[in-house]
Write a structure and sequence with these properties.
Layout (H helix, E strand, L loop, with lengths): L4 H14 L2 H14 L3 H26 L4 H4 L4 H17 L1 H18 L3 H17 L4 H25 L15 H10 L3 H19 L4 H32 L10 H13 L3 H31 L4 H18 L4 H26 L8 H22 L5 H9 L10 H20 L1
Helix pairs in contact: 1-8, 1-10, 1-11, 2-3, 2-11, 2-12, 3-9, 3-10, 3-11, 3-15, 5-6, 5-13, 6-7, 6-13, 6-14, 6-15, 7-13, 7-14, 8-11, 8-12, 8-13, 10-13, 12-13, 13-14, 15-16, 16-18
């Protein structure tokens, strides 16, 4: 794979848009719980927070459209509804979470300002970048990502080579791989792939200097570069959490653990470095989410620039309001939404990677319908609606008790619909 300067810059930009609040605070907490099982949770986390997002970017490289194109084979109405749900989730949960984490970890400890002041200034800066969207890839890829990567690798590297107490055993109650997989949902990276991938596609189209094949190659290479970066960082942070799991309390908050890790590795100046890291990592993600949402509304409003600007402003106002919630509260609120929309997103990513022969409209419609149907029990369980009937249903569904009840039905449906094609092909 020949890596050009442009693919590196685009890959770094992708990495920075993926790497936000959840990507920082979730892995160390997972590591401290996993202890000696850290490798297994890393595998699960990598599936949902690295491999699936990478597949999402590769799907964008293939179709080179907007997120609407991901679901249009099911039906245009379904795709519009799906897009609205994803963008609504994105601007009301992960984007505000970046502001909340920035305030809690980077601003409040030093300046003691209120969260409303932090969020307001934060989203004014986000809006500035979004309104200058033609320069986003250069801003993020050339300048911000290298700083993020250097700081995070410093924390990871020093943490690995520091002397530690013996590692405690795992305190996980779920199968480690499954725990890592479900925790990876909270990064929003698979959803981020379908949102941010569209931003990259449209940004390259605005520049207007690439053919379809050139764009396909560039997007694919940048996705691989971003995926490698995410894998290195996630593995390092989980491993650091595991190394220090006998030093810190298991019940320490996610943000508290990250702060403690930075001080343990970088000393008293660690909080300063961490503040820079948190601020930049969160900011780039908020820019990517807001740009993607504004692009979508602009597209359905006949490429209206006014619609783009209004959407960006509304998204930033929502970010300020939702950013007043505590980080932990935002994570709790996000769980039900993720348990419903994540399986659909995963299936759409995989189906969009298939050729027209295998990814027909009928396959899209049937497999997505089955996925939605079997996701409902997990969704109801996540909002604490429990009945004897639902418990029996979850017990009957393979993997239902580990919140993956949709997986085998979706795979089985696809296989059954593909058997006639295989038979016809052989004959």
């Amino acid at each position: 794979m020949k890596v050009t300067k442009e693919s590196l810059i685009t890959g770094f930009a992708l990495f920075s848009m993926f790497f936000g609040a959840g990507n920082l605070i979730l892995p160390p907490n997972l590591g401290i719980q996993a202890g000696d099982m850290w490798l297994w949770v890393t595998i699960g986390f990598a599936i949902s927070a690295v491999i699936l997002p990478l597949l999402g970017i590769l799907a964008h490289a293939r179709i080179q459209g907007t997120m609407f194109d991901f679901g249009k084979k099911v039906s245009p109405v379904f795709s519009i509804i799906y897009c609205f749900i994803v963008y609504a989730i994105s601007i009301t949960l992960p984007s505000p979470r970046t502001a909340a984490v920035t305030h809690e970890m980077a601003i409040a400890p030093f300046f003691g300002t209120s969260s409303i002041v932090t969020s307001s200034i934060y989203f004014v800066l986000v809006l500035f970048f979004v309104l200058n969207r033609s320069k986003i890839i250069n801003y993020l890829g050339k300048f911000l990502t290298p700083i993020i990567f250097i700081v995070i690798l410093s924390i990871i590297g020093i943490g690995i080579f520091t002397t530690h107490a013996p590692m405690n055993s795992s305190t996980l109650t779920k199968i480690p791989v499954v725990k890592g997989l479900l925790e990876g949902y909270q990064t929003f990276d698979a959803i981020g792939a379908v949102v941010i991938g569209g931003v990259i596609v449209i940004s390259l189209r605005i520049n207007g200097k690439h053919t379809y094949e050139e764009s396909k190659s560039l997007i694919a290479k940048s996705g691989i570069i971003a995926g490698i970066g995410l894998l290195i960082v996630y593995t390092g942070l989980i491993y650091n959490g595991a190394l220090f799991n006998s030093t810190f309390e298991t019940e320490i908050s996610r943000t508290g653990l990250l702060s403690a890790l930075s001080i343990a590795t970088l000393g008293n100046i660690g909080n300063v470095f961490l503040s820079v890291l948190v601020g930049l990592a969160c900011f780039t993600t908020a820019v990517g989410i807001t740009t993607g949402t504004a692009d979508f509304i602009k597209g359905i409003c006949k490429e209206s620039q006014v619609a783009y600007i209004v959407t960006a402003i509304v998204a930033c106002i929502l970010g300020v309001l939702m950013g007043q919630l505590d980080v932990h509260d935002i994570i709790i609120v996000a769980i039900p939404a993720l348990m419903f929309i994540y399986p659909i997103t995963i299936i759409l990513i995989i189906l969009n990677l298939l050729s027209e022969q295998w990814g027909t409209k009928e396959v899209f419609k049937t497999v997505v319908f089955v996925t939605i149907l079997f996701s409902i029990p997990d969704f109801l369980k996540s909002i604490h609606i429990k009945t004897t009937l639902m418990d029996e249903i979850l017990t009957m569904i393979p993997l239902g008790n580990v919140s993956l009840g949709w997986l085998l039905p979706a795979i089985t449906t696809f296989v059954l619909m593909s058997i006639p094609k295989l038979f016809l092909k052989r004959n």
